[in-house]
Amino acid sequence: MDSVSDSILIGISACLTGQKVRYDGSAKKSHFCVEELGKHVSYKTYCPEVAVGMSVPRPTIRQTEIDGNIIVSSADGSNDVTEPMQEYSEQVAQHVSHLSGFIFCAKSPSCGMERVKVYAASGQSSRHDGVGVFAQAIMQANPLLPCEENGRLNDAALRENFVARVFAYNQWLKLKQAGITRKRLIDFHSRMKYTLMSHDPLAVKRLGQILADASLAVEEQAEQYISGCMATLKIIATRKKHTNTLQHLQGYFGDYLTSQERQILAEQIHRYRQGLVPLLVPIEQIKHYLKLYPQSYLQQQFYFNPHPEELKLRYTH
């Protein structure tokens, strides 16, 4: 595996960064990816269509199903790039294990993650359940890799979920680079406890049982653990689950807070549960109490700082 640098590296469709590589010579620059997230990560750009020798500008290509096989070509069947596109995609897919995430261009016959048009052989009808050849190869070969489309990143919950997964997965890659040991696995799980709880309360125990199974080799433990961890983090954390997590955190301060401080925190959690304030409000209150009453176990929790504060991802939900 390629080494993991201090800078978080994400793969991305080149057109989303402003590169004019689309079929008509234009770009599809994503403001969030470039101007916001781009301040905290580095990008490795890919344009599979240009990579297989297609010109800019160029005739559009699309996916067509013929005898059960997906063909990537121009509408009239010419300019068939199916084989070189598959070869390129599979080659790249084997060399992205150092990436912490991937952002694809939506609806593209090469880069779309879902809802890609697939035309019938007659060309008269289409379905919308295809996957871009390049995106499919990346995701199949790297099932743990956080992946998302530019369009879906406009949804606040999906955007926060993806970015948090990227930063969590980056921590995992650093752990792997340092060398996996049982202690490091347990430490990682300890830091992830309340993050996991906010996505699936049962996952904390389930993943803990994997690490407690002494019959498993450490490599098998690591594989099972991170598979379960990343699957859990992909579940959207709801207001109800966050409230449950906040109440668990609240319990750590029972012996330290004054009655007034307890009331303030309880009220903020309640207001969050009702949808009157964003998650940031009770989180910041707890972080304030951690400064007044330090507790090392809580201070190391990924839940409090899953991504850079400047992204303001907890301001809207």
From TrEMBL:
<feature type="domain" description="DUF1722">
    <location>
        <begin position="193"/>
        <end position="308"/>
    </location>
</feature>
<dbReference type="InterPro" id="IPR007553">
    <property type="entry name" value="2-thiour_desulf"/>
</dbReference>
<dbReference type="InterPro" id="IPR017087">
    <property type="entry name" value="UCP037004"/>
</dbReference>
<dbReference type="InterPro" id="IPR013560">
    <property type="entry name" value="DUF1722"/>
</dbReference>
<dbReference type="Pfam" id="PF04463">
    <property type="entry name" value="2-thiour_desulf"/>
</dbReference>
<protein>
    <submittedName>
        <fullName>Uncharacterized protein YbgA (DUF1722 family)</fullName>
    </submittedName>
</protein>
<dbReference type="Pfam" id="PF08349">
    <property type="entry name" value="DUF1722"/>
</dbReference>
